[in-house]
Design brief:
Elements: H1 13-19, H2 24-36, H3 40-46, H4 51-58, H5 62-69, H6 80-83, E1 91-95, H7 100-112, E2 117-121, H8 130-140
Parallel strand pairs: 1-2
Helix pairs in contact: 1-2, 1-5, 2-4
Length: 143
């Protein structure tokens, strides 16, 4: 998150997720509401979906996700020096229907990584369909 366009993630979110490690459903709820910014009722509805079981199975990895994101989670512009050493081709892709804060973050990463290519896929959210991203990947990797 690179701006203040949504509610801030709590500074304690790594520790909070670690504290919930023995309660996977609660960890997912916390991550989805505090980290991603979904309304609580949406997470409640997610519990009815087949994917919920899979989310619970990997919930123990959420503190690692939060730790990897580190200081980049708290609404400050990216530090270009953090990305200056990237020397491989990078494709940064986001969905045109993703929330504004996600689109801004994707764009900021593309601007911070030297030589990165940025593509926004119209009509997609952050869960981009294979049929939509396939042509973008094919083009980037040279057909």
């Amino acid at each position: 998150m690179v701006d203040d366009s949504r509610k801030a993630i709590p500074r304690s979110w790594v520790a909070d997720l670690e504290a919930l490690s023995d309660r996977p459903g609660e960890a997912i709820r916390y991550f989805m509401t505090k980290g991603i910014g979904l309304p609580g009722f949406v997470v409640t509805l997610m519990k009815l979906m087949p994917a919920w079981k899979g989310l619970k199975a990997v919930a123990h990895t959420l503190p690692y996700d939060a730790a990897v994101v580190g200081e980049n989670a708290f609404g400050k512009p990216l530090d270009a020096a953090q990305w200056a050493g990237v020397e491989v081709p990078v494709l940064v892709v986001g969905g045109g229907k993703s929330p504004g804060w996600m689109r801004a973050s994707v764009k900021a990463v593309a601007e911070a990584v030297p030589g990165a290519v940025h593509r926004e896929i119209p009509g997609q959210n952050h869960m981009i369909k294979a049929s939509a991203i396939g042509p973008v990947l094919t083009e980037f990797f040279g057909g």
